[in-house]
Sequence to fold (190 residues):
Amino acid sequence: MKRRSRPAYDRPPERYDRPAAPRNPGGGGPFKSFNYGTAALLGGVFVLGLGAGMALSLSPGDNIANVASREVIDRSAPNADICLQYGASAIVTDMRVFVTLNPFNVYVTQPTMEPGCVLRRNNWSLLQQRKLVTNEQVNDCKNRMNTFGFTGTLESANPKITCIYQNNAAGNLFLNRPGMVDAPQERENC
Fold:
């Protein structure tokens, strides 16, 4: 038998002699000219903008509606210099609770919040010198192991001074969070 020659269209020799063409010629989509330097610059600008935005939104500034720090509360306290030297600034919440027995229900008024001050027990003489509390009020408050707190400036016509009780039963739940190791101990100011 005679061997036949192969047809020319079967295997052109130039096909195997040239290098292979890329699979996606001219493609690459939007990342064809990806530059790592540009990406790093854009990432840095993004992080810087994010940090600046957080700093501007979290700073208390002069916006009293945003009580975000102890410094804002200290500045807002009545007689702030006296309060910080002889006691502690506070947020005072006034509300009334109504309890009905038949049927049993509890109703609470909308609380009002205002800046206040809690005096240490050994600084009550400030109130007595200004004739804002009587000796009888001081003795009653002292006998119950309480202290005085006030709202409104002491120079005003009618500061609201109250004998208050320090309640340590509830504790500070911000410090005793689950999973927190060695919670810092709270300082007693009064």
